């Protein structure tokens, strides 16, 4: 059984992989090229791919008899893999849910606070040497206590954000999801995304990426938001129509945005970078030592189960 891990991992994950498997660990931190994706399917039994490795239907279709039988994806999101096409090619796909929940919810809170309290702008002011000192009306932001957060997508991560907002910050919680959630506090389920957008101070995107959610946040939803409201995205960039978002920010249709993900990541439009009222992070959602190790162990647990012929712990196809 030959295993290919497509990026460097934390030391403990690499050590376990080397101990337990016949593994090759790719040194590059960049996404696989098309040729490397074909190599992944042809030369290895199991591959651990991650974000940016675009296993599209064409990539699978190009291989008549792929050697690969499992893509143990290192990420909860798997919108970069066409899982139906993988299945048709006889390739299973797994992911790493659970491990990422708290860290990703923490980044949502970081962005809510940074954007509400103008923390990025303040940091830039201090570093520029231009700060003239405290005064009663200096750099006034938005108070979060008592405000309403609206959550689009109440899966594990959405619920972890809701809990933090409710218990930690005294916020009211509204959400939209396919089904009513039973939470340990009162939260309102909105009838439509448009009505959710219109009633909240912070709209947080926490749905998976992929064709079903692409551009859910578009110009009409942004214009339904209050001019004092802010958009936070910790999910996938393509859920938000970035061009429409920039227009809404420039025209003052909304007050600000906090983004950890981008439509054409890692490319970020210059118009977005020029805006003071946005907080921009480089996809840090799961970026802690502990979480990246847990994700790696989870991916390797799926590999181990596959090798032992057991049920896969985290199948997605
Ligand atoms: C990170 O974005 C993930 O999907 O785990
Ligand atoms: C602010 O620093 C205050 O003391 O109120």
Automatic annotation (TrEMBL):
Keyword entries, A-Z: NAD, Oxidoreductase
Q: Which terms in the GO cellular component ontology are assigned? A: cytosol
CDD domains tied to this protein: GDH
Coiled-coil intervals in this record? none
* Domain named D-isomer specific 2-hydroxyacid dehydrogenase NAD-binding: residues: 109-285
**What EC numbers are recorded for this enzyme?**
1.1.1.29
Q: Which SUPFAM superfamilies match?
A: Formate/glycerate dehydrogenase catalytic domain-like, NAD(P)-binding Rossmann-fold domains
GO function terms (MF aspect): glyoxylate reductase (NADPH) activity; hydroxypyruvate reductase (NADH) activity; NAD binding
Instruction: Please verify whether the record's keywords include Oxidoreductase.
Output: yes
Q: Which Pfam families match?
A: 2-Hacid_dh, 2-Hacid_dh_C
Looking up InterPro entries in the UniProt record yields:
D-isomer_2-hydroxyacid_DH (IPR050223), D-isomer_2_OHA_DH_cat_dom (IPR006139), D-isomer_DH_CS (IPR029753), D-isomer_DH_NAD-bd (IPR006140), NAD(P)-bd_dom_sf (IPR036291)
Where the record annotates domain D-isomer specific 2-hydroxyacid dehydrogenase catalytic, the positions are: 12-317
The record's family statement is: Belongs to the D-isomer specific 2-hydroxyacid dehydrogenase family.
Write down what this protein is called: Glycerate dehydrogenase
What is the source species? Falsiruegeria mediterranea M17
